[in-house]
Design brief:
about 1150 residues; Rna Polymerase Beta Subunit, Chain: C,domain 2; Dna-directed Rna Polymerase Ii 140kd Polypeptide, Chain: B, domain 3; 6 domains; DNA-directed RNA polymerase activity; nucleus; ribonucleoside binding
Length: about 1150
């Protein structure tokens, strides 16, 4: 217990640390930091590890000296590529990518040549990264580049489409994990990952014996034999690597006896035993020497030595590969293997608990940089293999001209592999046995909040179809790292998450200097380890480097070095008392979070520091350098005691850290909810989903964007009650909603089931009015015979005029044909045109082979290089408008894309005012549709003459328990009266007492209630009505986009049943449950109409004699007769079933009853 601090001094403006942190770390900067680390460090390491390609037969070699990525450019057909902005790429359907240049040295005709800046491919560039042209630009410079200054970046642009790489949850690498397996019992595993190899080692326990389970062997390998294959042949040495306790020895003795049973005593015996149980015999079998006795490695013959050497190489490459070893000294790996066996024994005896896979200290997050590094490594190795193959096929010695490899480099290879993976989202890397789908997604541009939420999304590799609660539940270690509210409903619940506001993900850093530094402090060599109770093994990123007898002092020393800036601020240290080990971690993918350091129960951050921060004298990095703020990850957090605020420091506990702001445990989307701590938890989760669907302001450059689909609110407003997150995320500058005057009361019965009553006059004034923008367009490309697609103006309609003597004269009317009314001479619709259904917007024509010229075209229907212009004709393939309501042409764009393809885009605008059935929502998960639109004169009004915009049924509150909405109304009313924005932040918003006092001071009821008068009778209502402003969001779900009906329309070719789906003009499906309802109500004729008459009714010809389907009404092929062929009405699917059964050699026969025969006669 620490000494209590009797007079805590509250830190004012402590929340100023949050925007200071967000200016340098967190949120989208997670992706940007990871990508920058890849561009500046990882890509150089990959090239350095694969820096030589040689073909000795051709006396040729090539070495890479350096690699670097240039800012994005585009080749417009000129000699020099020109710089390109992200906005240009969006408009012109370009890929925002920079050139990958290398400096190489290679052999050319017995001459060593060095070249600099050789192009090997193009790298997709992340927006706002170090190689992006937007990096470091000011507000005004971004505006001149036609970019939104508030756009977070962190995504890619591939062929004009914005793509974001989602964060991926993975199990921690290079860590010993002991877990329970339903089939194999306790399993101890480690996933090793190094720059050279990646492997997984599993140690299992069967019949009180320990085995290595690996797919390279046909059987499970006894661990004792594996030790002997590593060169540890003495049983005493093996036991020393596992432990010195008698209980440990007693558990491992049965495994030692396995060596006697298998007649394995030496390293040679162990290697032979392993070799005989390989999945594929990859090595030469060893031959024993004369006596048949095992021979020592120093006296074995060459064949036996090959067996030992090859098997040790094999074991080196598959067992615990992350632990470094010098030559073939397996002692460090033997110690690690002994620790795995030791943990398994202790877990089996319940001395240590199994590891929790859901604990965030055992997880790592893969970001864009690490995922693209895997892609580039695979693509670069494939590129080198192709170069080797190219040189091998060319006889360089017999060439007349010097062989220059730079002319044979396939720059498209790396480019295509990277672009295809990011565009499709499929990370399929067979070299690393990686097959992941859905890694990238199209950035959601429904609103600014939706884009921010998409950038911070984190997915798990756990199967979404499995109904397991463990990985989906909120874990205690999520505090401050993962938002507890922002997760989708349905099968992805708990598996798709969002990071919290002040969460940061570390990047990989080299640990060589860290190991060298630690080796001089309290660290003893491993060979002196005796497994005493005070001896703790030290692991650095999962690699054992020594042991210490003073773990507490070592941990305090590392924290002191971190606070003093001697080591990186993201280095973490934690002590596992039960396992008797100290873990020092500097790897990438760890979730960490900043905290204020507390010493002697006093925060080291002072009020003077905070004032300097507000005045821009100090920055976030200065607080880190002073050691008053530090990052903690989930593991180190277990060794700390964190106070929630300054007042907790007086309760007598010895605190080590203090929260900066408790509201930062929420994510960026949940942080927009006012008073979320007063709502039921599921309501906050609902709002996180609906906040991303709210129509608002997409970006500051939304009027010059040509997105496929874009929703814009005409009159967006900033909310009257805001949280601190709203201001930090600039949501008040890009809002998505309006402050509506809401009356909580019943009205007319049209407000049941959360339906809303809306004031018609408010809609006339523009309340919740939105514009929907859709894009249509075409690409004009050049075909193989050098003929381009073309745009053509409207076709002129013709009319047939009947002349005397029955002659017909065809004359042009001068009017465009039906559908071409909007087209101009350039083949596109004019700006401002009103487009209705089936009208053509862009009249594109593409060349095809004439039907009369197929023979002359070598019998091919497609165009090829030998197709002449005389063989081609142009066929219409226009882009037309489809919709039940007209739209207006907003803009028309002509530009060029890659390969000098012409791009034509037409932007359509449609104004939507709310109608019955449109969906609205407050910021508290209170969703509902418009149930009735009422004239203003029929709506209730207050004494001040205010008429509500929305009337909400009060029955929506008791079961939902959204007290936050009641507080928001109170705060909005106080803010509107006082003329200032009120604070609704989590855990620290304005209290109800404060808001009530403001209402009283301005002459209003302290509860926010009003006396309303009926608009119909004029009499005052009998009850006080809770009345005031609430921020309402209009969601994208609108009746106009969902209304669907059809009488007749297209059918599928196979079954002749109506197509499915609104976009295909499909029918309305009658399923099993609807059929059951028809049967229950006895509406048999309606059932026949739905399932037969209106679906796929078909008159089939059936022969009464044989019962088979006849060929026609006049002939049965089976009976060779036409006398008894009748017509039977049946579903076409039934007739198709009979035919499919006949294809399977099953002969169905129809037997017609007498009633049917009589009716037919």
């Amino acid at each position: 217990m620490g000494e209590p601090n009797p007079n805590p001094i509250p830190l004012e403006n402590k929340q100023a640390l949050v925007p200071a942190f967000l200016s340098s770390k967190g949120l989208v900067k997670l992706h940007i930091d990871s990508y920058n680390h890849f561009i500046e460090t990882e890509i150089k390491n990959i090239v350095r590890a694969n820096n030589r390609v040689s073909v000795p037969e051709a006396n040729w070699w090539l070495e890479y000296n350096d690699v670097y990525v240039r800012p994005p450019t585009v080749n417009d057909g000129g000699v020099v590529a020109s710089r390109v902005t992200p906005h240009d790429c969006r408009l012109r359907d370009l890929t925002y990518a920079g050139e990958i240049l290398v400096d190489v040295t290679f052999m050319r005709q017995n001459e060593i040549v060095t070249k600099k800046g050789v192009l090997i491919g193009r790298m997709p560039v992340m927006l706002k990264s170090s190689v992006c042209i937007l990096n470091g630009k000011s507000f005004s410079e971004l505006m001149r580049m036609k970019e939104c200054p508030l756009d977070p970046g962190g995504y890619f642009i591939i062929s004009g489409t914005e793509k974001v790489i989602l964060m991926q949850e993975q199990t921690s690498k290079n860590r010993i994990i002991v877990e329970e397996d339903s089939k194999r019992g306790l399993v101890c595993s480690v996933t090793s990952s190094s720059a050279q190899t990646k492997s997984k080692t599993n140690i299992i326990m069967k019949d009180d014996k320990f085995f290595l389970a690996h797919n390279s062997f046909t059987v499970d390998v006894p661990v004792a034999i594996l030790f002997k294959a590593m060169g540890i042949t003495s049983d005493q040495e093996i036991l020393h690597f596992i432990g010195t306790e008698e209980s440990i020895w007693a558990n491992f003795v049965p495994s030692l006896k396995q060596c006697l049973e298998c007649n394995v005593h030496t390293r040679l015996d162990a290697c032979r035993w392993l070799q005989s149980r390989l999945q594929q015999r990859r090595f030469r079998p060893g031959v024993a020497t004369g006596s048949g006795k095992p021979t020592r490695p120093d006296t074995v013959g060459s064949a036996e030595y090959d067996v030992v050497l090859d098997m040790q190489r094999f074991v080196r490459d598959i067992i615990i590969t992350h632990v470094e070893m010098e030559k073939f000294n397996f002692a460090p790996r033997a110690l690690f293997l002994g620790q795995m066996v030791r943990y398994l024994i202790l877990a089996n005896e319940h001395q240590i608990p199994p590891d929790d896979r859901d604990f965030y200290g055992n997880k790592r997050i893969e970001l864009a940089g690490s995922l693209i590094a895997l892609l580039f490594e695979d693509a670069f190795k494939t590129f080198n293999e192709d170069m080797w193959l190219t040189v091998s096929k060319i006889d360089t010695r017999r060439r007349c001209t010097p062989f220059d490899i730079s002319r044979h480099i396939k720059t498209w290879m790396i480019t295509e592999l990277l672009n295809r993976a990011i565009s499709s989202g499929n990370w399929i890397i067979k070299r690393f046995r990686m097959m992941r789908h859905g890694v990238t997604q199209i950035v959601s541009r429904l609103s600014y909040v939706a884009a921010l939420g998409h950038m911070t999304r984190m997915t798990s590799t756990f199967e979404k179809t499995r109904k397991v609660s463990g990985p989906r539940s909120i874990h205690a270690s999520q505090w401050g790292f993962v938002c507890p509210s922002d997760t989708p409903e349905g099968e992805a619940c708990g598996l798709v998450k969002n990071v919290a506001l002040m969460c940061h993900v570390t990047v990989e850093m080299d640990d060589t200097e860290l190991i060298r530094l630690l080796s001089s402090y309290y660290v003893l060599p491993l060979h002196q380890l005796q497994y005493g109770r005070t001896e703790f093994i030290i692991y650095v990123n999962g690699k054992p480097i020594g042991f210490t007898e003073q773990p507490g002092k070592l941990a305090a020393l590392i924290r002191g070095l971190r606070r003093a800036g001697r080591i990186d601020c993201f280095v973490s240290v934690h002590i596992k008392q039960v396992h008797r080990c100290v873990h020092v971690v500097s790897d990438g993918g760890r979730l960490c979070r900043p905290y204020i350091v507390v010493a002697n129960n006093r925060p080291l951050v002072t009020q003077a520091m905070l004032e300097d921060l507000i005045n821009n004298v100090l920055s976030w990095d200065d607080f880190l350098k002073k050691g008053v703020v530090e990052y903690l990850d989930a593991n180190e957090l277990n060794d700390c005691l964190v106070a929630m605020d300054e007042f907790c420091l007086t309760d007598g506990h010895r605190y080590t850290h203090m929260e900066i702001d408790p509201s930062t445990i929420l994510g960026v989307v949940a942080g927009l909810i006012p008073y979320p701590d007063h709502n039921q938890s599921p309501r906050n989760t609902y709002q996180c989903a609906m906040g991303k669907q709210a129509i608002g302001t997409v970006a500051l450059n939304q009027q010059i964007r040509f997105d496929t689909l874009q929703y814009q609110m005409v009159y967006p407003q900033k909310p009257l009650v805001q949280s601190k997150t709203i201001q930090m995320m600039h949501f008040d500058e890009l809002p998505a909603g309006q402050n509506a005057i809401v009356a909580i009361m019943s009205y007319s019965g049209y407000d049941v089931e959360d339906a809303l009553i809306v004031n018609r006059a408010s809609l006339d004034r523009g309340f919740a009015r939105a514009c929907v923008y859709r894009r249509a367009g075409v690409h004009l490309k050049m075909h193989e015979n050098a003929v381009y697609d073309r745009l053509m103006g409207p076709s002129i309609d013709r009319d047939h005029i009947r002349k005397p003597h029955y002659t017909v004269w065809v004359a042009e009317t001068g009017l465009p044909r039906r559908g071409d009314e909007l087209l101009q001479a350039d083949g596109t619709a004019y700006v401002g045109a009103k487009a209705t259904d089936r009208q053509i917007l862009v009249n594109k024509e593409m060349p095809v082979v004439k039907t009369t010229a197929v023979q002359d075209n070598a019998g091919q229907l497609g165009l090829h290089a030998g197709t002449s212009e005389s063989m081609t004709e142009f066929r219409r393939c226009p882009a037309d408008y489809k919709g039940i309501e007209p739209s207006y042409v907003e803009k028309v764009l002509f530009s060029t894309s890659e390969g000098n393809q012409a791009v034509v885009k037409v932007l359509l605008r449609q104004t939507r005012r709310p109608e019955v059935g449109d969906k609205f929502s407050s910021r508290h998960g209170q969703k509902g549709v418009v149930g009735l639109i009422v004239r203003q004169e029929d709506m209730p009004f207050s004494l001040q003459g205010l008429v509500p915009d929305i009337i909400m049924n009060p029955h929506g509150f008791p079961s939902r328990m959204t007290v936050g909405k009641l507080l928001e109304l109170l705060g909005s009313k106080a803010g509107a009266i006082e003329g200032r924005i009120r604070d609704g932040s989590a855990f620290s918003g304005d209290s109800a007492e404060t808001l009530s006092r403001i209402l009283i001071d301005h002459g209003h009821h302290y509860l926010g209630k009003e006396i309303l008068h009926s608009g119909v009778t004029g009499a005052p209502l009998e009850a006080y009505i809770y009345f005031g402003p609430v921020y309402y969001q209009r969601l994208k779900h609108m009746v106009m986009d969902k209304v669907h009906a059809r009488s007749r329309g297209p059918v599928t070719a196979l079954t002749r049943q109506p197509t499915e789906g609104r976009s295909r003009e499909g029918g309305l499906r009658v399923g099993e449950m609807e059929r059951d309802c028809f049967i229950a109500y006895g509406t048999s004729q309606l059932l026949v109409e739905r399932l037969l008459t209106s679906s796929d009714a078909y008159d089939a010809c059936v022969c009464e004699r044989c019962g088979l389907l006849a060929t026609s009404r006049n002939w049965c092929q089976y009976c060779r007769s036409s006398r008894q062929v009748v017509t039977v009405r049946m579903p076409y699917a039934c007739k198709l079933l009979f035919q499919e059964l006949m294809c399977m050699r099953i002969l169905p026969r129809l037997t017609l009853g007498n009633t049917y025969r009589d009716r037919m006669r």
